[in-house]
Specification:
The structure holds 2 protein chains of 2 kinds. By secondary structure, chain A is mainly α. Chain A has 12 helices and no strands. In chain A, α2 runs antiparallel to α3, α3 runs antiparallel to α5 and α6 runs parallel beside α11. The longest helix of chain A has 32 residues. Chain B folds into 2 domains: 193 residues, P-loop containing nucleotide triphosphate hydrolases (Rossmann fold, 3-Layer(aba) Sandwich), CATH 3.40.50; 65 residues, no CATH class. Helix content of chain B is 36%, strand content 22%. The chains are: A mainly alpha, B alpha/beta.
Chain lengths: 267, 273
């Protein structure tokens, strides 16, 4: 793997942001709206529940972590879609750029753009709603890492779907986080789900993170086993997503889909 | 009028080096075939291009020209056959082969939301070019793009976009350059200038060029050799200035029309003994 082509993919996104600063808007707006909205919901729940439970860390912390995961996914897929929208596949893949270099470039781009979103979320949640985000301590880094890997996995998987089924299938990509959110157990414990949903949820890394987060906030100590399970599933699914992308790419090269993609993009 | 055989075509190209010595081709294609199920898009295509040689790839729409180019660029997998660029087999050493290749085509415009300079920097990194800023400045100068360097490519005229695409295509000093109708959207004056520049670059950089065009005047003016494709098969090969006469046509355009309308490999009634 060479670093220059990877740098090229990242530099391109920088150029796009510099040339059109309005692209920063979606990176910060939706996460800010989410934090403000859920911040007031948690504040309201705190005032009416009378149970003494502080909903801010569990609900707002959950929103923040889940938004981070979806921003990572959207960072990867949006960078990929830039090439779909500008019909750039032929120029890209007729260059020495390898698939792994391309994907690494997309991931690094996503890290940079998602960090902006994370910073905005943390600032708002801490300043406006006094979210004790760092009170989770060391497990927080592990939670973020597992969700980061899961976000990348979803981004690569979604991009592979668009590569396989054409530009119009980008509409399958955007609802993916919403589709998975009931199974992610962001706001409730897994035990409230019916058995078949629990079965699906156990195949995703996100519920282990949120169960772990609730365990830490309830004073249950370091959720080592949950995090290990989540990390293993995240790593396995990342490998599967990369394998899937490589298979789709090979199929596209074999059938001529890649060469025709520019024309389909124009349709 | 039998089609040139695979080995003969490649050998002819190698032997045609100016000093008579054997030269390693910039491109060697052997037995290239592409089938989509029962439909055969390209059949047993073999040819070679020497360094500094400009070879025209001619044929009617659907003849297999773009299929050939896509396979040489590695974005379409051949059903059979091999592509060797310089010393590197494309199937086995894709990155090394493509580092020495580049292309420009009307259907592969540079991203319109980046400026000319940004595009050249971006593609320069993809091709691993060292001293990139200097090389980009050279290309901007060579293709009269200095005043347009900070203009987004989507805002350029067709002619300017063609020049930007050619600047990108020559960034990495390719040993092999594929040009799919590079002057299709240019006015005659701009087309003439571009042809002259590409010809000069082929000489100076010793770059082998595969050039597709439907403009037979252009092909005669630029190409050292032409390959005629029809229905996925190579039917004729030779010097564009002598080929028409050798095949009973007065001009290359007339020969092209004949090739497009009939299969020259099939004996016509007059030729049947």
């Amino acid at each position: 793997m060479k670093l220059r082509p990877v740098a090229g993919i990242v530099l391109r996104q920088f150029y796009l942001l510099r040339g059109s600063p309005v692209r920063v808007f979606p990176m910060v707006t939706w996460v800010a709206i989410d934090i403000v909205l859920w911040g007031f919901i948690t504040r309201y729940l705190n005032s009416v529940s009378g149970s003494g439970v502080n909903f801010v860390p569990t609900l707002l912390g959950g929103v923040l972590l889940w938004d981070f995961c979806t921003r990572i996914m959207q960072g990867v897929s949006t960078a990929f879609l830039e090439d779909v929208w500008s019909r750039n596949f032929l120029n890209l893949f007729a260059s020495p750029l390898s698939i792994s270099e391309y994907i690494l470039g997309l991931v690094l781009t996503s890290v940079l753009t998602s960090c902006v979103g994370l910073l905005v979320m943390l600032s708002l949640a801490t300043m406006l709603f006094h979210l004790p985000f760092f009170s989770m301590g060391a497990p927080l880094a592990a939670f973020l890492l597992v969700l980061f890997v899961f976000g990348i996995t979803l981004g690569i998987f979604g991009s592979a779907i668009v590569l396989r089924y054409g530009p119009a299938s980008e509409w399958l990509l955007w609802p993916l986080p919403a589709l998975l959110s009931p199974f992610a157990a962001v706001f409730y414990p897994l035990s409230v789900l019916p058995p078949w949903m629990q079965w699906v949820a156990h195949a995703l890394p996100a519920p282990y993170v949120f169960e772990g987060m609730r365990s830490v906030l309830n004073g249950g100590g370091f959720p080592g086993m949950l995090l290990a399970q989540g990390a293993l599933i995240a790593a396995a699914e990342l490998l599967l997503a990369e394998y899937f992308y490589a298979r789709v790419y090979r199929h596209a090269v074999r059938t001529g889909l890649l060469a025709r993609y520019s024309a389909e993009g124009a349709a | 009028m039998s089609p040139p055989s695979a080995d003969r075509a490649a050998a002819a190209a190698i032997d045609s080096s100016h000093d008579g010595s054997t030269t390693r081709p910039a491109l060697r294609v052997r037995g290239l075939r592409k089938a989509y199920g029962a439909m055969i898009a390209l059949q047993d295509l073999s040819f070679a291009i020497l360094p500094g040689e400009i070879v025209g790839l001619l044929g009617p729409n659907g003849a297999g020209k773009t299929t050939t180019i896509n396979m040489i660029l590695g974005v379409l997998e051949p059903s059979a056959g091999s592509v060797q660029i310089g010393d590197f087999d494309l199937g086995r050493r894709r990155a090394q082969a493509l580092e020495r290749t580049n292309f420009a085509a009307v259907y592969a415009a540079l991203p319109g939301n980046l400026t000319v300079r940004e595009n050249l920097m971006f593609f320069g990194l993809l091709y691993g070019i060292t001293a990139l800023r200097r090389r980009v400045d050279e290309m901007l100068d060579t293709f009269d793009l200095v005043r347009l360097r900070d203009t987004k490519c989507g805002l350029l005229s067709s002619g300017e976009q063609t020049r930007a695409a050619l600047a990108k295509a020559l960034l990495n000093r390719p040993q092999l350059l594929l040009l799919d109708e590079p002057t299709a959207s240019l006015d005659p004056s701009a087309a003439q200038l571009i042809r002259a520049r590409i010809k000069a670059l082929a000489d100076q950089e010793n770059c082998g060029i595969l050039w597709t065009s439907h403009n037979m005047y252009e092909v005669e003016a630029v190409c050292n050799r032409v390959l005629f494709l029809s229905h996925g098969q190579m039917l004729l090969e030779g010097d564009p200035r002598t080929l028409p006469e050798a095949h009973g046509s007065s001009t290359l355009e007339e020969l092209f029309i004949r090739v497009a309308r009939e299969r020259l490999t099939e004996p016509r009634p007059a030729e049947v003994p």
